[in-house]
Amino acid sequence: MTTPSAPSGWLHRVTDSDVWWSFKSSPMTVIAAAATIFIVVVAFLSPVLAPHTPFDPATLSLSDGLKPPVLVSNDGDWIFPLGTDDQGRDVLSSIMYGTRLSLEVGLASVIVAMVLGIALGLVSGYFGGTIDAVIMRIADVQLTFPAILVALLIDGVVRGLISVQRHDEIALFVIVGAIGLSFWVSYARTVRGSVMVEKNKEYVQAARVIGLSPVLIMVRHVLPNVTGPVLVIATINLGLAIITEATLSFLGVGLPSTEPSLGTLIRLGNEVLQSGEWWITVFPGITLAALVLAVNLLGDWLRDALNPNLR
Amino acid sequence: MQSIAVLLTVGLVAFSLFRYVGDPINAMVGQDTTMEQREELRTKLGLNDSAPIQFARFIYNASRGNFGLSYRTSEPVGRLILERMPATLELSLCAALFVLFIGVPMGVYTGLYPKHWSSRLLQAVSLIGISLPTFLIGILLILVFAVSLHWLPSFGRGETVQIGWWTTNFLTWSGLKALILPSITLGLFQLTLIMRLVRSEMLEVMRTDYIKFARARGLTNRAINFGHALKNTLVPVITVAGLQLGALIAFAIVTETVFAWPGVGQLFIQSVQFSDIPVMAAYLLLIGLLFVLINLTVDLLYFAVDPRLRSQGGARVAGH
User: Fold this and answer.
1) Among A246, A227, A232, residue whose Cα is nearest residue A290
2) Which residues contact A186 (CB under 8 A, 6 or more apart)?
3) How far is B315 from chain A (nearest CA, A)?
């Protein structure tokens, strides 16, 4: 895990690696990576790229409301290429801002789950005994319940603990926390397994003999051995986390409609779906599906590429 | 043992929710209720007793199906759930049948002819199926079959028939029609999962010696494919199918919201929004119980499908 000083050396290390070769030889993965990068870049540059600022009421006009997309109807307007919703908000711009929010929530909750899972897994595997038993029992019980149910419960409990107004303010953190807490188990199990293998090897014993603290041994010596599997779980979880956030927002217990993510946009569109305004729902839906599909394809490839048994 | 541990933990979590989260009185009464009235209600709901007494009462009541009053509607939680249970169970059952009767044959087919173009197509479509969130599938189905084509209803259960306390969809035409879209929505994700699992298991089994030997004995393809190959894929398939049945009931929350299906999931979402803790706690216990029952059934089914386990004199299944 050393980093060479010259950037060109670093680049060569990447292009010469097995992983890069397996990446190049899978066209599907290259497409998925390109799609992911495109969606991420467009989403994060939405304040610059988006044609409208959909959530600034000053720029909205109700007379622009419910315009259909340009390509399917003569009533369309090139100013709003994908049409507008009932408030006159541009669907394309809403999607760009919404995707950014979905990605932010997804990434943040994956990081929360990862940090929590790695920490508990390290502690559990390194110390063993009672603390290990307790952590793994909790993991077993939680694993019996689907993640979405755990996230819903946490959200419901937080709603009970704080007032409605406060909840809207911190909704983002509640969601990130709820999703993060519902995905930690897989990291903890993987890390625990690897730690139990590694901790009896000579290099860890040597580190212990020099008198390094357990924390230092775990972070500097044991942790680097589990980066591969953890990375795979993180990629697969990113897709799941984005879906979970969208589902929670769709159910109306996620982010408030003043700050719509893709899930919220789909929910708002679903309310007018019966009257035939399909574009308000369908375009955010396609974006969500494309994003998750691309991330899942990357995750699948990464799992195979980093698995030595399949090479 | 594992099952009892799970149930106890869930019970404890449910009780802590019930007891310590939020002030139920505020949720139930209006602004103009006096302090005395609040205190009276508090005593009536038993919120003034000590924690161990409340926990004992909670477990005792729960075991008799009594979960107290809903903070939102002030109705008994047990009755609220019981009224809505048939809707969810019928929906989950239909989805499960859809998964098994479509997913397993599709898996067998793609496993037998992995190189055929239709298998490749199914495989690609299944990847998209895994990436589509449940609620999006529901919305797309509604858009096509209800809004554009007007073939099927987009919300509610249609007409139902009351048999005792159970309301059923199966006996009316409109009830059956109302089941189609929600069942497909609920089952599609599990369908792709089961299909992929059966496919990979079939691929594995078809390479084994006893299949070659069965061919050499001149058995028909049909007998080999279903009698020998499929039977040997059943143990992992049953494990996953059992887990997925639990997931079906949990994901019914989403499907019921999309289709305005009056089931337990919808009740749960409403209780999360209003932070109606007794309903959440009861739902949690119920789901925990269901998961435990499913796990037990799966363990028993192992013995039914795998004769090797029966001859071991009831040794516990390990490693599956």
Assistant:
1) A246
2) A117, A233, A237
3) 22
B69 forms beta bridges with B76
Distance CA B248, CA B242 (A): 10
B200-257 pLDDT, tens digit each? 888 887 777 887 888 788 777 777 777 777 777 777 787 777 777 777 877 888 888 8
Decide if A289 and B132 are in contact by the 8 Å CB cutoff.
yes
Both structure tokens of B265 = 């999931």
b/e map of A212-251 (b: 16 or more CB within 10 Å)?
eeeeebbeebbbebbebbbebbbbbbbbbbbbbbbbbbbb
Q: How far is B314 from chain A (nearest CA, A)?
A: 24
Check CB contact of A79 with chain B, cutoff 8 Å: no
Interface A-B, measured as beta-carbon pairs within 8 A, has a size of 112
Strand, helix or coil at A162?
coil
Give which of A51, A87, A95 is closest to A66, Cα–Cα. A87
- Evaluate whether ipTM surpasses 0.85: no
Task: Kindly tell me the burial class for residue A211, based on how many C-beta atoms sit within 10 Å of its own C-beta (0-12, 13-18, 19 or more).
Answer: exposed
* Helix axes of B173-206 and B77-98: crossing angle, nearest 10 degrees: 50
A217's tokens? 């041994």
Which residues from chain A sit within 8 angstroms of residue B5, using beta carbons?
137, 141
What is the per-residue pLDDT across A53-83, written as a single tens digit (0 to 9) for each? Answer: 766 666 666 666 666 666 666 665 666 666 6
Q: What is the pTM of this model?
A: 0.79
Kindly state the DSSP code that residue B100 receives in the 8-state scheme.
I
Q: In A, which residues are within 8 Å of B258 by CB distance? A: 270
Out of A144, A157, A273, closest to residue B291 by CB: A144
Q: End-to-end alpha-carbon separation of chain A, Å?
A: 22
String of b and e for A146-174 (b: at least 16 CB within 10 Å)? bbbbbbbbbbbbbbbeeeeeebeeebbeb
| C-alpha distances in Å from residue B251, one per residue of B228, B245, B281 | 34, 10, 18
